[in-house]
Design goal:
With 244 residues, this protein is of the alpha/beta class. It contains six helices and nine strands; from the N terminus they run βαβαβαβαβαβββαβ.
Amino acid sequence: MDSKLTGVRAVVTGASSGIGEAAARALAAEGATVVLLARRGDRLRAIVEDIRAGGGAAHAQQVDVTDAAAVADAFTRIADDLAGIDVLINNAGISINDLAADADLADWHTMVDVNLNGVLHASHAALPHLVAAAQGSRGVADLITVSSASGRRVPKPTSNVYAATKHAVGAFCEALRQELGPQQVRVGLIEPGFVATEMTSNHDFGELDALEASDIAETIIFMITRHRRCGINEVLTRATGQVS
């Protein structure tokens, strides 16, 4: 397989379904060697087998992004096995919406642990490898984080902590962009609106034609296949009919 991303080594978190799975498949289809990270090992291995059956290069690492030590160990193994890491796609996330007065505090902690700390853990573990890779023949490395349109504005009261984690992720990514741009590491943030995935399976979209995971995967491919002089730092994408 020889395409836009031949020779690129990519890691995708939250890759067992939805946007993460779609991103991993899209990366492999463009020639990248992809490592899929998530908690559901059986699901990961099934996706990897399918990618390989189609001629792609993929590997699975069963990791919980809330476990900082496990994430660090996983990235060390990946970098050793692949002789580096060129791309990180931070995608793992969870949404639990409820009015603050009715919420279970444990749900708030879960969202902070997955949506924010998971991004911090993976980014911290990947950074030295991305900086090193940017000095290679490709001349650039990429750190892309899938956030949410809720990271720009709070759509409803029940979005409270979910939106808070996404706002925090946006601030963190902007700081990374300022720090890492001079080292040729591009930092990008994608803020999707309604996407039909496992995470939104209980959401009633009504007549809305929601985005699909493949739409976000295509955006990721666009961002990381630009010339190294061009960094796409922030993309807000909503379903055409989405108002909020």
